[in-house]
Fold this protein.
Amino acid sequence: MQIPVFRPSMGEEEIDAIAEVLRSGWLGLGPKTKEFEEKFAEFSKVNFAVGLNSATAALHLAVKALGINSGEVIVPAITFISTALAATYNNAKPVFADVYEDTLNIDVDDVKKKITKKTKAIIPVHYGGHPVEIEALLDIANEHDLRIIEDCAHACGSEYKGKPVGSFGDVGCFSFHAVKNLATGDGGMLTTNDGGIAKKVEQLRWLGIDRSTFLRSGRNNYSWYYDVMDIGYKYHMNDITAAIGLVQLRKLGKMNERRAEIVDIYNKNFGDMGWIRIPVKKDYVKSAHHNYVIKVEDRDELIAFLAEQGISTGVHYMPLYLHPIYSNVKTSAPVAEKIWKKIITLPLYPDMTPNDVNKVITSVKAFKD
């Protein structure tokens, strides 16, 4: 059986939670979503959390809710396409900053170099679950009157100096896609301490309507009337997704602990191999270990070799300016240009068995035998 790169960890609790929602008769945006939002806000140590159907939606609405509809938004060169599209969706131009070779997080010094009079915001990505140098970025934002939107898609459970990611910037954006640490199939969350932003996003996620169906419903007093306040989107979470999310949130700590255990095993086995560079972890962070990315010179050959052994791998990611959509964007990112050709993501998920982990290790080692 093929060992995948990622696999969600699901059990009877999630099945029971879905069944409870189905029996309730309320499947859409409703009480479970509200409960998940409250629990996630508490978990993230913020005042507000707004449930959405993806992190892409969270990023889109974050930029929009902050009033950014022109100018430039600085994003890392190596990230998923959604990070840059959040700017493009809002008629702003993504500017690609270089990344650090060790963590693959956005390079703070390059951010400074790429700020112009047109810059409106920075969207740092906590790549692989390893938090960025957020304090330095906040200092830059304060100096230049910029907004910070944390892309926490990889980082559910990550901390910077003991504080959860998603609680530092103006907004945090989380992903609950099927491969993420907290998985609901699809889904996302926007976190903020700003009540105005939260209220704006709550309207935008439901087509600009001022009150959702759930808020207009009650025991014997349903009101059909609502106002449409803005051009909104169909981006809301539903109670099936939220019910899964509530269970996953309770399990997240243990699932992330298992990820960390596997990372430690990988590091002990690969750390002394001269042809492999293993991931680093700064001493001031707690990583969610969303993925395990090594760097090798003959990356494509290793990918092909592991596929023959029944082991799936990934590449996260090629620089965004190499995609046709952004090929007209001039940028200089020499580290990203060099390092992306060497990165390979090995399997990492909580339900990996000891045999799975051992097979990955022995197969990687066999590549050079």
Notes: The chain has eleven helices and twelve strands. The longest strand covers residues 48-52. The chain has a mean pLDDT of 96. The chain has two domains: 12-250, 253-366.
